[in-house]
Amino acid sequence: MQKKILISISLFAGLILYSCAPQQSQIILSKFDHENVKMGEFEKAYQKNAEGNVEADKDSMDKLKDYLKLYTQFKMKVLYSKEKGYDKDPELQEEFENYKNDVAQSLFLDSTIVEPGIKELYQRRKYELRISHIMFRTNSSNEEKEKSLATAVLDSILHGANFAQMAMKYSEDVYTKTKGGDLSYVTAGELPKSIEDAAYSTPVGHVYPKVIKSNYGYHIIKVTDKIDRIPEKEVCHIFVNFKRKGGKVDSAAARVKIDSALAKLKSGEDFAAVAKEYSEDPTTRDRGGVIGFVPRRKLIPALDTVAFSLKPGEISGVVTSPFGYHIIKVDNEKKILPFDDDIKELKNIFKKSYYQEEHDSLVSSLKVKYHFKIDGGNLDSLISNADSSKVGDDSVLTQEAKGKLLYTFGGDSIYADQFLTQMNKNSKYSGMILTSEILTKALREQSENRLIQMEAKKYFANDPYFQGLMKDYKDGIYIFKLEQDEVWNKVKADSTDLYNYYLKNKDKYKYPDRVSFSEIFNMSDSLINDVYNKLKDGASFDSLTKKYSERPSAHKQEAVSSSDLAKKANELQNPGDYTKPLRYSDGYAIVMLNEKEPAGPQTFEEAKAQVAADYQDLETQKLTNELLNKLKEKYNPVYYYDKLSEAFPAKGNKADESK
Hints:
Elements: H1 2-9, H2 22-25, E1 28-32, E2 35-38, H3 39-49, H4 53-58, H5 61-83, H6 90-124, E3 127-137, H7 143-158, H8 163-170, E4 182-186, H9 193-200, E5 212-214, E6 217-228, E7 232-241, H10 251-266, H11 271-278, E8 290-295, H12 301-307, E9 315-320, E10 324-334, H13 339-353, H14 355-369, E11 373-374, H15 376-386, H16 395-401, E12 405-409, E13 412-415, H17 416-425, H18 436-459, H19 464-486, H20 495-504, E14 510-511, E15 514-522, H21 525-536, H22 541-548, E16 555-559, H23 564-571, E17 582-584, E18 587-597, E19 600-601, H24 604-635, E20 638-639, H25 641-647, H26 649-658
Antiparallel strand pairs: 1-2, 1-20, 3-4, 3-6, 5-6, 7-8, 7-10, 9-10, 11-12, 12-13, 14-19, 15-16, 15-18, 17-18
Helix pairs in contact: 1-19, 5-19, 6-13, 6-18, 6-19, 10-11, 14-18, 16-17, 20-24, 25-26
């Protein structure tokens, strides 16, 4: 229902503030009953509908007048809805409150967590840091011991001990300890938030002065370099394997070959030509050694370090990897995108790497702020009484839960039956057994949402954007209900109505030229040519279809204009004729004509679905017009179009010029 409501109010959601003089904003453009539509609110709604001032300025006076009429009709529908008592309908009010809470929570989290988070992330991702660390793994039994050891090691380093030596001695990260703890270059979004925060606040050459906790354990962090970040580089390489024919390792022979390639490059020969001659990488050799655009750490470390040290056009010397020798060339590099162009990726990174931690931190602070407290005894009682009941089928349990306080916060008290009723409405838990784990999870989610919604309510209490958004949505609920009662629920059509409508409008229901054809589709050009030769030798099209076609829908009936295959089939003269192999989609096809069907009228059964849709549209429009006429008679709207011309004289001139 919400989707339809949002669509119905989108024309009128005036959320962009428009600066007009105070006196002009009070000009009355239309009135009905005891209501007035003033210039200020009209401009807000119109600017939103016109997608901003630039587009609005292009519109004619006729469009302004049309919109004023639409907007006034919208306002009359709202007034009529309230007179019908929709603003006192408990079901509608509950829907509105739920929507208001959900939107407030979402906007609050975006405003306080996501937006500042992605702005900080963007600034940090302008740079790459080279980081070394010493890691102390922890579990439930040794955490204090490891923290004490980490603190002692950090103290030694801060008093002059060599970081790399301490890493080799103490670090439990087996991948970096032999390299003195070096993690190489990283950027924001690739490390636990606690480590990232420490690293980006530490000057190059310094050690962060505190032990850092992550999900992996405790860490000591040192920043060894900071450079501008290049998101991706377009890389080519020439590769010579240590292993020669027969699988024997011969690094000397490989070295001779790679040196020969390097010599040719130094003499000025084209990199792509040398790669095709010398490279032993089968996936890139025929492309002139092109690997393509790669981000940092996509290549193996030896190649990554060299590639990201080269500028476009530069060629490396011989680089050794665990697999053989390489020569690297960088053709191009990508720059950091402007913030607005990078928002989608920033949000993905933030929500994946940081959001939950920030969310949990916010909830913890709100629990303290609002004195959140769970009644452990009543929670235990609720869990024990569940007795394998299912969500949605717990009437007995709900009765037992009445009056049992479950938790309190900010002056609100939530009882066990309220909690279960809300849980029943959550489709995520539908049909689940009320186990201890499920009840605890649902309680955590519900209580966290209530805490955030309470804070969000205060946050947006005096926010004009939010208040306007909620007013628009509430009006949309009322109008949706009004149109449902006055229009949609009254649209009824039996088979006789539809058939009579069809008879009156038969000329509307025709099908175009159609063609029936069969196809054999295969990804292999050599195989499809073999199939074609078999057809010419007299093989059955159907038997070859069953044996070779890689698409299940072999027999089709389509409008001639609907696809390239249908067009090709229509070019054939006689049923049974077939085409030569055609390049189609990501493979090849042979098409055989079955039958051509010229355009003609559709029968009632063929057209029934479209007839029903057209009839419903006609009746809907008829009932809508009846509703608008009822409102017109009831409220007698008056439009002051001359005031529009006074406020927008340039538009009036444009309208005159167009006549």
